[in-house]
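In this supplementary section we document a worked example of the pipeline. Step one takes a protein sequence of length 77 as its only input; no multiple sequence alignment statistics are reported here. Step two produces a three-dimensional model, which step three serialises into structure tokens for compact storage. The input and output of this example are shown verbatim.
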Amino acid sequence: MPTTDAMLNLNYITDAAGKQIAVQISMDDWLLFQQEYQEIKRKLEILGGIKEALIEVHQARKENRKLQTLTEFLNEC
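The serialised model returned by step three reads:
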């Protein structure tokens, strides 16, 4: 489940003028944030790979180039 401000216990640090300059969160919230960040990062890497593959397929179709089938790909694994 994504972390939202409503779920976090945030402590704001302010300067002498009262301007917020930093935020402090509990260690539990920080560890949860790091875990969620890593999950999102992995998803973005996968989506980036899919995007590159789609670009390659599009380019191959433009050039009438034959690509490896899914079965061929899976047989290599």
